[in-house]
Design goal:
Elements (H helix, E strand, L loop, with lengths): L2 E8 L2 E2 L2 E7 L9 E3 L6 H13 L2 E2 L5 E9 L7 E9 L2 E2 L8 E7 L9 H12 L5
Parallel strand pairs: 1-7
Antiparallel strand pairs: 1-4, 2-3, 3-9, 5-8, 6-7
Length: about 130
C-alpha cells in the first residue's frame, strides 16, 4: 500500500534561482510550503504556510498553478510518496526564516542533489522552462 504525503509548495524564482528552505536540524533543502489543514483550499494552505515559515504575505490574486510532482518521500519507508502541488505567487514583505526554518537559500540547477526527490522533478521542469540557472 502506498502512503501519500500531500503538500503545497511555493515556487519563487528570482534571477534564475529558486527559493529553498532548510528546517532546523535537517540537511536537505525543500520548497517552502506544507500540508493543508482540514478543509483548507490550496490557496489558503499556501498563504498560511508561507506566512508562518517566511513572514511574507502571498497576494491571493497572483497565485498561479505551476505543476504537481510526486516521488518517494525523503527519510520515509519505501512506498511513502510525497506529492508537491506547486504554485507561483507574488508576496508582500521581506523574507525571513521563521517557525521551524533555520535557513533560506537561492538554489540553482547545480543544487539539484541537495533537495528532495519530488523537488528534483520541479527543478527539472524549471530548467526545461528556462527559468533556472
Amino acid at each position: 500500500m502506498t502512503t501519500l504525503i500531500d503538500k503545497i509548495a511555493w515556487v519563487r524564482v528570482s534571477e534564475g534561482r529558486l527559493l529553498g528552505a532548510r528546517s532546523i536540524g535537517k540537511a536537505i533543502y525543500y520548497i517552502p510550503g506544507g500540508k493543508r489543514e482540514p478543509g483548507e483550499t490550496d490557496a489558503e494552505a499556501l498563504i498560511r504556510e508561507i506566512e508562518e515559515e517566511l513572514t511574507v504575505r502571498i497576494r491571493p490574486e497572483t497565485i498561479r498553478y505551476y505543476g504537481t510532482y510526486e516521488a518517494q518521500a525523503d527519510g520515509k519507508p519505501a512506498g511513502v510518496q510525497v506529492r508537491l502541488t506547486c504554485y507561483a505567487a507574488d508576496v508582500e514583505g521581506e523574507l525571513q526564516p521563521a517557525s521551524e526554518i533555520e535557513e533560506i537559500v537561492w538554489l540553482t540547477y547545480a543544487d539539484r542533489e541537495r533537495v528532495s526527490q519530488a523537488s528534483q522533478l520541479l527543478f527539472d521542469q524549471l530548467k526545461q522552462d528556462g527559468l533556472l540557472l
